[in-house]
Amino acid sequence: MRDIDYIDILLPYKEIFEFKKASAVSLTIYNSLKFSKYKKKIRVFGKTINKPLTKNYISLKTNRLIDFGNNISIAKRYIKYLNKKKNTLIEIHIRPQLFNYIISKSSNPVSIHFHNDPLKMSGSKKLSEREFIAQNASAVYFVSDFIKKKFTKNFKKKYSNLHILFNGINRTLKKKPIKKKNILFVGRLVSAKGILIYLKALEKLLPICPEWNFFVVGTVKPGYNLDKLPFYLKSRTDREGQKIMASIRNLSKNRKNFHYLSFIDNQKVQKLMRDSAILVVPSIWDDPCPLTPIEGLANGTVVVSTNRGGIPEILKKKGIIIKNINSDKLFNELNNLILNKNYLNKYLNLSWKNFKLNIDKLVINQDQIRSNIIKKFKS
After folding, report:
1. What is the pLDDT of residue 349?
2. DSSP alpha helices (H): ranges in the chain?
3. Domain total for the chain?
4. Do 148 and 142 meet the contact criterion of CB atoms below 8 Å apart?
5. Using CA atoms, how far apart are residues 9 and 7, in angstroms rounded to an integer?
6. Nearest of 166, 190, 219, 147 to residue 32 by alpha carbon
7. Are 310 and 368 part of one and the same domain?
8. What is the residue range of 118's domain?
9. Given pLDDT bands bounded at 50, 70 and 90, which one contains residue 179?
10. How far apart, in whole angstroms, are the C-alpha atoms of residue 139 and residue 266?
11. CA-CA distance, 15 to 94, in Å (whole number)?
12. Partners of residue 280 on adjacent β-strands
């Protein structure tokens, strides 16, 4: 049998493979493509978009009503596109339902990447569903050991095709950057990301640290107008967002060392991280493998975060972890970093020296797994 013709990456409907709207999943895929030895054979499939991140993106026209759902529509359209005369390694991201459909319609090897808790996703909530995936997938990838343990909960046997593959970013800096007295928050302005904890801590920090600048970068909901009467705010995120924005406007009005930048593109975010001494990632949900603290470490920034989800795996011996975070604990930690230069420099050095999540190194591991799958498929 001849060599593999394509490696097809299939995205769920919600993923938008564009610079201005890309999530951590899309950005990680985009970054990894550049370093894969299979990059000339890789194609990325997803919903119809105007300006994809790469030229090898193929838009699939979907019909939610006819196909009974957007994701199943993606899967059906992909199967129609798939050339049965070509040998293809198929890689599903996020959606177990896509995996279950594709594997029933194709004899090609199929892998799946879990970026979120499998116990909360249709198609992998049940033990029998997860065991089926482990038994039938060519590879199952997890963005952290935290997510792998969720997947293998109550398993009675071990599987050799389960792999941890962290999100990553390449460090482009050649030497340790000179830092300004900046403290930074980057992310969705929702309570799960800890923005309210950060803003509450700033109420005490801003007046006593006038020589430091404090930044918030992010939006509640891209493109959504929160300046409406509460009656018209449809979701809890909307109503919560109105309170968050009110707090941000109040700090912006009363404190010159507070800066709200709303949405800025990733290149500007990276520049801000390079300049900033401290990045705060105060997540209060079990974030599987957030890209923001990884970006912070890549830019030699002190990352202050929590013990939730896969975050401790990222920050071990590199950053500061606050257990059971609240605004008082965050205030104390940031105040300590500001007042104690030796303490700050200790973590600036650890962040710089211990960064090991370069995407080019991670892709080498993934390509080796792909090579082993292809060898078995050919034999």
Report:
1. 97
2. 24-33, 64-67, 70-81, 96-105, 127-136, 145-151, 195-208, 236-254, 266-275, 291-298, 311-315, 327-339, 341-353, 359-378
3. 2
4. yes
5. 7
6. 166
7. no
8. 6-168+359-378
9. very high
10. 31
11. 10
12. 304
pLDDT per position as a tens digit, 226-265: 555 454 445 666 678 888 988 999 999 999 999 999 888 8
pTM here? 0.90
Residue 316's CB is within 10 A of a number of other CB atoms, namely: 10
User: Would you say residue 241 lies in a domain?
Assistant: yes
Structure tokens at 64: 């939610």
**Section 352-378 average pLDDT:** 93
Residues in the chain: 379
Cβ atoms 151, 124 nearer than 8 A: yes
Q: Is 134 within a domain?
A: yes
Return the pLDDT at 329: 98
365 in helix, strand or coil?
A: helix
Assigned domain for 121 exists:
yes
Residue carrying the six token digits 């979907």: 62
Q: What is the DSSP letter of 109?
A: -
Question: Locate tokens 């201005």: which residue?
Answer: 20
Q: In Å, what is the CA distance from 320 to each residue of 145, 206, 306, 315, 359?
A: 19, 21, 8, 7, 23
- Residue 5 identity (one-letter amino acid): D
